[in-house]
Amino acid sequence: KPLVFSGVQPTGNLHLGNYLGAIKKFVALQETSDCIYCVVDLHSLTAQLVHADLQDQTRSITAAFLASGIDPKKHIVFNQSRVMQHAELAWIFNCVARIGWMNRMTQFKDKAGKDRENASLGLLAYPSLMAADILLYRATHVPVGEDQKQHLELTRDIAQKFNNDFSARIAELGVGVEIQVGEETVNGFFPMTEPLIGGPAARIMSLRDGSKKMSKSDPSDLSRINLTDDADTISKKIKKAKTDPDALPSEVDGLAGRPEAENLVGIYAGLADIGKEAVLGQFGGQQFSVFKPALADLAVDKLAPVAAEMRRISADHAYVDGVLRDGGERAGNLAETTMKTVRDIVGLLQG
Ligand code: AQP
Questions:
Q1: Quick check: helix, strand or coil at residue 142?
Q2: Per-residue pLDDT for 70 more than 90?
Q3: 243 FRET partner, CA 20 to 30 A, in 104, 187, 229, 257?
């Protein structure tokens, strides 16, 4: 069975981009894979160290997972900081990865802004911790939005360099497995993890600007639909969403050069679980005055039950904390098995 790992940061309100680009995929993968879903609280310290409400945010993301249909008994749900091996493996990866690799990450450049010297070292090393999250479980697949593609490539680079640097030791200990690297098969410890990106909602854009991704940190609340928005707010935001004056095209090709129209069609497709072609089959030739109310109805229909369930679950601290504790124990056992071998490979004295 494939082993799936993914994480969401407990920073701010979850929005439709997080839901369609990541969480909905998490839910679907439960049928075919063993899944580990993590609230990555250590990651959330990289951009902003002091979070007044980190614990409640952690509960709220957990509640979003559960309300969306993730089963914490069949799979694993936990918060990252409970399993200290994440930080331990990240340290080893900090010594494997090169500073130049980190400096090239577009997320680092965006988040650090002009004053890079003043960004936290954690922000620079973010992808190293992300690689540790994934490879600690030797996960084979990672469902993420398009924005995380570069970090997933870096995860593969780190795995490959580790396998290569320690190839003799991996062979000596007999802990390697066959790993496909491009055309070649090599003996290595960490897998070449595959990103699962794609579908009509891999990159949901801001409702105010079709060239910017929908994001928690956008100062305009009108730019995003939050999972916790009520029906009126969702309708208002969709009504106010930026569009062009033309009718929708009948073919996907006709969306080229119309980023706002393409985004709304992608959102409809993601919510309805159909392709963009099917959406245009239904709405091609129609004006936004017809399409937007239909999209608003669909969004309310799909999101309102999740939001209600999320509110109910996140109020029950004892239940949510219990889920995280139990998931943390199970994840911790898996993580320790990997780390024992990694410590041996690296040559750290144990026992
Ligand atoms: N706009 C998006 N479209 C599709 N997928 C998205 N994701 C984020 N934004 C979009 C995916 O959501 C998952 C969790 O993301 P995260 O916790 O790392 O949060 P983030 O990427 O920091 O979220 P934001 O909203 O983009 O925050 P800021 O404003 O801080 O940059 C990931 O799989 C991500 O790809």
A1: strand
A2: yes
A3: 229
12's CB contacts (< 8 A; 6+ apart) are: 57, 216, 217
Answer whether 141 contacts ligand 1 (Cβ < 6 A). no
Task: Please name the residues in contact with 237: beta carbons below 8 A apart, sequence gap of 6 or more.
Answer: 207, 222, 224, 225, 229
Q: Which of 1, 73, 212, 216 is catalytic?
A: 216
**Given the residues 109, 149, 212, 213, the one annotated as active site:** 213
Q: Look over the chain and give the mean of its residue pLDDT values, rounded to a whole number.
A: 96
| Strand, coil or helix: 192 | coil
User: Does domain 3-200+316-346 bear CATH number 3.30.830.10?
Assistant: no
Residue 12 banded pLDDT, cuts 50, 70, 90: confident
CA nearest ligand 1 atom 15, residue: 8
Please indicate whether residue 212 is annotated as part of the active site.
no
ipTM: 0.96
Rounded (10°) CA dihedral 188, 194, 195, 197: 170
Q: Is 111 a catalytic residue?
A: yes
Is the pLDDT reported for residue 45 higher than 90? Answer: yes
Q: Is 148 in the pocket of ligand 1 (CB under 6 A)?
A: yes
List the chain domain ranges: 3-200+316-346, 221-313
Query: CA 20, CA 14: separation in Å to the nearest integer?
Result: 11
Query: Could you tell me the sign of the dihedral formed by the alpha carbons of 254, 260, 263, 267, in that order?
Result: negative
Q: What is the pTM of this model?
A: 0.96
CATH fold label, 221-313: Tyrosyl-Transfer RNA Synthetase (1.10.240)
Q: 224 in ligand 1 pocket by Cβ < 6 Å? A: no
Give catalytic status of residue 242 as yes or no. no
